[in-house]
Structures are given as structure tokens and as C-alpha cells.
Design brief:
Helices cover about 30% and strands about 25% of the residues. The structure holds flavin-adenine dinucleotide.
Length: about 425
């Protein structure tokens, strides 16, 4: 029975049934770019986008670092590598064309000690393989770029890393979608599926083709279509600390050499599009999907499912989850986070005050049979529907290029 018809003894309400050529679920950066790409390819098609919140970009797309990554973290065979360079260029051009904020501050990757030098070399090798502009420089040259930086002997400088304002980009894309006659339905949730019909909180839609870009809920929706059988989303919370030091007190992003075995980049300094300084994000296991803080977004079923999954990972220490979880949980301490950031750069001349910023949650996919985190973007689909399941960082950077690829896949394979 369809969810609006529940309630014994009540006469079923008349339910609106609409037909559309494309139905896109999720109004994040991916859903919006998919809608715009659908319009580019099919000027006459009817396109509907469902977003359960009142504003587009309410989850990962509006709660991230806003960094346009250059593309040197990822192995050359990955989708992340394939779309970072092009995605960075497309979003940079978009911001320039529309007059949106863009901070072309570049990025330094620094070494803590001698043990980090092979990691720097590996990033350089990956960068070259991916066609990314990247320079290996001395510690002295790094201090020319950013006088406060701390590094052991060498560093990498990435000139094409930049920052945008995610909220400005999302607002602009939403406006584009509306102007291009995409039916953007806010406050409208996908609830389930009955045969060809999709049940939403505002009626029934029968799509010609459905694309699921629902971020933290993409695996749940994919399962309704008999996909994502071997995968589940494991949410990881990213906390940020914002500094009150004056804009421009750091000149570039500063990142450590990450552990390349997991998809997180370690606590780093980020400059916002307007030059403010932030540190973060953490990668703390969350207990439910929209677990931003306290009991926000509380969902008992998710707590049980995700909590028991995490307990199993903790006990078996799959992919080093135990040490990752304890290391990350310690970052609830402001002192600990600031202390870690100090390994990357000396404190500002005037002592900075730090306050917590808005957290974001990564919709990180885990492959259940191997109990490993998926490192790359991941998708499944057929001639009726397509499901985007691991659009984690650098998904924002890649979005425009990646969404073109998604349509190529749909057109060529189905
Ligand atoms: C802390 C953090 C930092 C990051 N930093 C960067 C960065 O610096 N650079 C970068 O390139 N990437 C970064 N990322 C990754 C980037 O934010 C994501 O790759 C990108 O935002 C994913 O977009 P999306 O549209 O797939 O997901 P989302 O933005 O999460 O959008 C999914 C949408 O689907 C909606 N939805 C869910 N369920 C339903 C339903 N049932 N019905 C209707 N709507 C539904 C949600 O409300 C949501 O708006 C970061 C991510 C996080 C969490």
C-alpha cells in the first residue's frame, strides 16, 4: 500500500500521478548537474528533480571545504583521477563566468618528518600520471609561498587547487536549472517504489528514466531497485574549526601527507573562498546518516544498523577501523585538532580563537563482502535507473565532468 493511503478506515486520498522523462533524486551538486546535463542533451525532455529539504545543497554539497582539488591523490585508473582535472577547470570557468567567489590560493602538501618523504614522492608520481600541474619544492621555497609553513626538507606545491563558496555555486546551479525548465521540487522526498511508479511525499511519479543522486541515502534507494546488494553507506562526520585570525593570514591551503590506504586527507588548513582560515575536516564515524551533532537527524533503525556495523568493524579492526575511529574521536577535542594543525604551520602572530563550524557527513561506501571502504566513485544501473553510490570527495570538484560521464554511460550502455 502506498504510504499516503495508510490509516485504516480512511478513504484513500486522490493521489496525483505525473509522468516525466527524467526523474533525478537529490538536489546536491550531483543532482543539479545531472539535471542540467539532461537538459543539454535533451532540450525537449521533461525533467524533475526531487529534494527532500527546503534548500538545495543542504547536505554534503553545502557542508564541505569548497576546495577544487587538483587531482593528484588518486591512482590514474580511477574515476576520481579521470574527472578532477577537467572538473576543476569546468567549475573554475563557471565561477569566473558567473562572477562567483573563487580563491586561487594553491596548496602546499608538507612532510612531518623523514617518514613522509616516500608519500610525497608517491603523490608527485600520481600527479604526473594524471596530468596535474604539481611542483616538488624545497622547505625554503615552501616558506616563500607561505612563511608560517612547517615541513621537513621538501613539499609539493599545487597551483591549480582553489576554493569556491559551495553555497554560491549551489544557488547559481539551482537558478540555472529553474531557468532551463527543470522542475525542481523542494520539500519533496522519495519514499519508495511500486512497479514503475515512484512514491514521493507529494504524489506519484512515473519516470522514463530515474537517476539516484541521494547522497547519504543513495544505497537505500538503490536497494529498492535491486542494486547496491553488496554495499552500504557508512557515514563519517567532518568537523571544522574556524579561526578568527584576519583574512589573508595564511596564503595557501596546507595539507599533510595522507594515509593513502583510506579516502580521508587528514586534518589540514583550508582557506575559504573569502580567505578565512579553517582546520578540519575530521573523519569521525557517525552513528546515523544525518548525525551532525547531538540528536539531530536521529533515526533509531539507522543507529542500530550502523552502530552494529561499526561495532563489528571495531572488533575485527577491518581496514584499520579501530585505530582510525580512536584517532578521529580524539578530535572532538579542540586542543587536539589545533595541536595537529600546528604541525603543519606556526600559529598566527596574534593568538587565534577557534570555534566549531558547520559539520558535513561523507556518504562513504563500504563493500560488505570484503569489508573495505570503496576508494573510487561507484555506480550501478540498467535501462531504467542509474545509482550514484560513492560520490565522496572530490565529488564537488569533479561534478560537472562526472555528470557528463554518467550520461555517456547511460546512453552508451543502456
Ligand atoms: C566534510 C566534507 C568535506 C568535503 N570537502 C570537499 C572538497 O573540499 N572538495 C570536493 O570536491 N569535495 C568535497 N567533499 C565531497 C563533496 O561534498 C561531495 O562529493 C558532493 O557534495 C556530493 O554531492 P551529492 O549531490 O552526491 O550529495 P549531497 O550533497 O549529499 O546531495 C544529496 C541530496 O539528496 C537529498 N536526498 C536524500 N534522500 C532523499 C530522498 N529520499 N528524497 C529526496 N531527496 C533526498 C539530500 O537531502 C541531499 O540534498 C566533501 C564532503 C564532506 C562531507
Amino acid at each position: 500500500m502506498c504510504p499516503f493511503q495508510r490509516g485504516l478506515g480512511q478513504r484513500p486520498k486522490r493521489v496525483r500521478v505525473e509522468k516525466v522523462d527524467f526523474l533525478i533524486i537529490g538536489g546536491g551538486i550531483i543532482g543539479l548537474n545531472l539535471a542540467l546535463e539532461a537538459r543539454r542533451r535533451q532540450p525537449k525532455a521533461s525533467i524533475m528533480l526531487l529534494e527532500k529539504e527546503s534548500v538545495t545543497g543542504s547536505h554534503a554539497s553545502g557542508r564541505n571545504s569548497g576546495v577544487l582539488h587538483a587531482g593528484f591523490y588518486y591512482t590514474a585508473d580511477s574515476l576520481k583521477a579521470r574527472f578532477s582535472v577537467e572538473g576543476n577547470r569546468l567549475l573554475t570557468d563557471y565561477c569566473l563566468e558567473r562572477g562567483l567567489s573563487l580563491n586561487r590560493c594553491g596548496k602546499l602538501v608538507v612532510a612531518k618528518d623523514i617518514a613522509d618523504l616516500p608519500g610525497l614522492k608517491e603523490l608527485l608520481r600520481r600527479g604526473r600520471a594524471n596530468g596535474v600541474p604539481l611542483e616538488e619544492i624545497s622547505a625554503e621555497d615552501a616558506r616563500e609561498i607561505e612563511p608560517r609553513v612547517r615541513t621537513f626538507e621538501r613539499a609539493l606545491f599545487s597551483p591549480t587547487t582553489a576554493t569556491v563558496s559551495p553555497s554560491e555555486v549551489l544557488a547559481s546551479l539551482s537558478q540555472d536549472a529553474i531557468e532551463k525548465k527543470v522542475e525542481v521540487r523542494l520539500n519533496t522526498a522519495y519514499l519508495g517504489r511500486k512497479g514503475e511508479a515512484v512514491i514521493t511525499s507529494a504524489g506519484v511519479v512515473v519516470p522514463g528514466y530515474l537517476i539516484n543522486a541521494a547522497g547519504l541515502y543513495a544505497d537505500k534507494i538503490a536497494k529498492d531497485f535491486a542494486f547496491s546488494k553488496e554495499h552500504e553507506i557508512l557515514p563519517f562526520k567532518g568537523l571544522y574549526l574556524k579561526s578568527d585570525e584576519p583574512k589573508g593570514s595564511l596564503k595557501t591551503h596546507i595539507y599533510p601527507v595522507p594515509d593513502l590506504e583510506n579516502p580521508f586527507l587528514g586534518v589540514h588548513y583550508t582557506l575559504t573562498a573569502s580567505g578565512e582560515v579553517k582546520i578540519g575536516p575530521t573523519a569521525i564515524p557517525a552513528f546515523w546518516r544525518e548525525h551532525y551533532g547531538g540528536l539531530s537527524g536521529f533515526n533509531l533503525k539507522e543507529l542500530v544498523d550502523i552502530g552494529s556495523r561499526e561495532l563489528g568493524l571495531l572488533i575485527r579492526n577491518d581496514f584499520g577501523f579501530r585505530s582510525l575511529a580512536f584517532r578521529e574521536l580524539a578530535k572532538y577535542s579542540r586542543k587536539k585538532m589545533v595541536g595537529q594543525a600546528r604541525e603543519l604551520a606556526a600559529p598566527a602572530a596574534r593568538k587565534a580563537r577557534w570555534h566549531w563550524g558547520e559539520p558535513g557527513i561523507r556518504a562513504q561506501l563500504i563493500h560488505l563482502p570484503s569489508r573495505r571502504l570503496e576508494m573510487d566513485f561507484y555506480h550501478e544501473g540498467d535501462e531504467k535507473s542509474f545509482h550514484l553510490l560513492n560520490v565522496v570527495s572530490p565529488g564537488f570538484t569533479c561534478s560537472m565532468a562526472f555528470c557528463r560521464y554518467v550520461f555517456d554511460e547511460i546512453e552508451n550502455k543502456f
